[in-house]
Amino acid sequence: MALMSENGTALDRENFEEFYIRWKEKQNLHPHDLITTATEPSPSSSLPGLVDCVLSHYKEYYRVNSKCFDILLILSAPWKTALEDAFNWVGGWRPSAAFHLLYSKSGLQLEAKLAELMKGEDMGDLSDLSSAQLSRMDKLQRITIQQEREISEKVAKRQKRVADQEMVELSRDVSEVTQMQGDQSDDNETARAVDSTMKHKEEDFQLVVQSADYLRLTTLKSVVNLLSPIQAVHCN
User: Fold this and answer.
1) Per-residue pLDDT averaged across 84-112, rounded?
2) Is the pLDDT of residue 39 over 60?
3) What pLDDT sits at residue 165?
4) Residue 117 to residue 153: CA distance in whole angstroms
5) What phi-psi label fits residue 164: left (phi over 0), alpha (psi between -120 and 50 degrees) or beta?
6) Rounded to 10 degrees, what is the CA torsion of 136, 139, 143, 145?
7) Secondary structure, 3-state, the chain
8) End-to-end CA distance of the chain
9) Is residue 154 scored above 80 in pLDDT?
10) Residue 5: phi, psi to the nearest 5?
């Protein structure tokens, strides 16, 4: 199934893989750019724009991803690493993982700079999270987990539908046609029925993946919005 590019040209599986590789290469440059800018004498003027650029880069991925109609390609992309596959959730990373990462990094930075914090020094990183930030982050985390649960339930329902009565009957028809090897028109009609049913189910799954992608992107944006630009750099 084809993917449409910005100019309306269809992108096949190979071209989509090329897009992902280029996107990943650019993403790998972001940590260096963010850290370099954060260590400049006056980073406050340029950091917000750079953080927005990183968010736009993620937005671009999900924009292209939403136009890929090969749902199997999204759910089990062959170019992803084994580690990425291990943490895969509905075609990507689990949104609630953003909070685990944030709290882990915050704890490490707090431990490393505890002496300075005890003196009342402003660290400007994740060890400086205020009570108000933590409270809003906790609320956002609970909302995100609930939305995750709802999407997971939708996935489970659609997985059950793969083996519903309609699919069982089609499977039986395919078996009968294969055994009989009779009228070619019967064979073609059964094939069309299978293709039509599978297309509907794939489109249904595609909507769920798009919901998961939307939650990933909105969670990322919401977490960044709760942090200062310099804290967002340390969360990267």
Assistant:
1) 89
2) yes
3) 55
4) 43
5) beta
6) 110
7) CCEECCCCCEECHHHHHHHHHHHHHHHHHHHHHHHHHHCCCCHHHCHHHHHHHHHHHHHHHHHHHHCECCHHHHHCCCCCCHHHHHCCECCECCCCHHHHHHHHHHHHHHHHCHHHHHCCCCCCCHHHCCHHHHHHHHHHHHHHHHHHHHHHHHHHHHHHHCCCHHHHHHHHHHHHHHHHCCCHHHHHHHHHHHHHHHHHHHHHHHHHHHHHHHHHHHHHHHHHHCCCHHHHHHHC
8) 34
9) yes
10) -85, 180
pLDDT of residue 82: 81
184-225 helix and 47-66 helix, angle to the nearest 10 degrees: 170
Sign for the CA dihedral angle at 103, 89, 86, 17 comes to negative
Give 82's Cβ-side CA count (13 Å radius). Answer: 0
**At residue 90, does pLDDT exceed 80?**
yes
Q: How far apart are CA 51 and CA 230, in angstroms?
A: 9
Q: Which of 152, 131, 161, 122 is nearest to 226 (CA)?
A: 131
Q: In one letter, which amino acid is 179? A: Q
Dihedrals φ, ψ of 125, to 5°? -110, -160
Mean pLDDT over residues 106-115, rounded? 79
Q: How far apart are CA 77 and CA 75, in angstroms?
A: 6
Q: How far is CA 233 from CA 11, 125, 151, in A?
A: 34, 8, 29
